[in-house]
Write a structure and sequence with these properties.
This protein has 104 residues and is mainly alpha-helical. It has five helices and no strands. It has one domain: RNA polymerase sigma factor, region 2, helix turn helix motif (Rna Polymerase Sigma Factor, Chain: A), CATH 1.10.1740.
Length: 104
C-alpha cells in the first residue's frame, strides 16, 4: 500500500498589487511593465479590436495604450481607482482617438 501524497506547501510567491506595479513604472521598472502587459494586454487588445475591427490597428492601439499608461502613471496614482478601469479607459481613448473606423 502506498503512503498518502505529501501536502503541497502553500505558495510563497504573492502577486504584486496592480498599484505597486504602476508605482514601479514611475522609475522605469521593466519587470513591472512586463508584468502589467502580461496581466492586461489581452483585455486591452479585446477593447481595441472591438473598436477598430482590424488586428494591425488594434495592435497599434495596444502599444499606444501602454505608452500612455507609462506617461500618465503619476496622475493615476493621485486618484482612487482600479488599474483595469484606468487601462480600459485608456484603451478606448487610444482606439477611438484618430484610430477608430471613422479614421479609415
Amino acid at each position: 500500500m502506498r503512503p498518502p501524497p505529501a501536502e503541497r506547501p502553500a505558495a510563497t510567491h504573492q502577486r504584486t498589487p496592480d498599484r505597486t506595479l504602476i508605482e514601479q513604472l514611475l522609475v522605469d521598472d521593466e519587470h513591472a511593465y512586463r508584468e502589467l502587459l502580461a496581466r492586461y494586454r489581452s483585455m486591452v487588445y479585446a477593447i481595441a479590436y472591438a473598436v477598430l475591427v482590424d488586428p494591425e490597428r488594434a495592435e497599434a492601439a495596444v502599444e499606444k495604450t501602454f505608452r500612455e499608461a507609462r506617461r500618465t502613471a503619476a496622475a493615476f496614482l493621485r486618484a482612487p481607482g482600479s488599474v483595469p478601469k484606468w487601462l480600459t479607459d485608456l484603451a478606448h481613448d487610444c482606439s477611438a482617438n484618430g484610430h477608430g473606423p471613422a479614421a479609415r
